[in-house]
Amino acid sequence: MKRKLLLAISVAGLAVASAKSYSIELFQPAMLGNTELAAGTYRVQVVDQKAVVTNGRKHCEAPVKVETADGKYNSTTVRFSNGDGKMHIQEIHIGGSRTKLVFNE
């Protein structure tokens, strides 16, 4: 019984550890889903089809689609749309990779 519990905990830990993690910098407040993020550095982790965005104690989740671009991005960039007077995160391009995170509003 203890072995099964230990195995289950180990597998769960590996699943979380295997999630890709990226760092982004927001220079102005922005909306991600229904959550407003202040300017600052955030860690973005993709788990299943959700992006988990954290900055210290601040935590939010949003549905995300991971796409592959034709070429590598030179740097990590965040694309916004300006709706209802607020900036909304639409895409995050991951520098040094061909990975693009697309958020549906």
UniProtKB/TrEMBL annotation:
Residues 1-19 form the signal peptide. Keywords: Signal. It comes from the Bacteria. This is Uncharacterized protein. It comes from Candidatus Acidiferrum panamense.
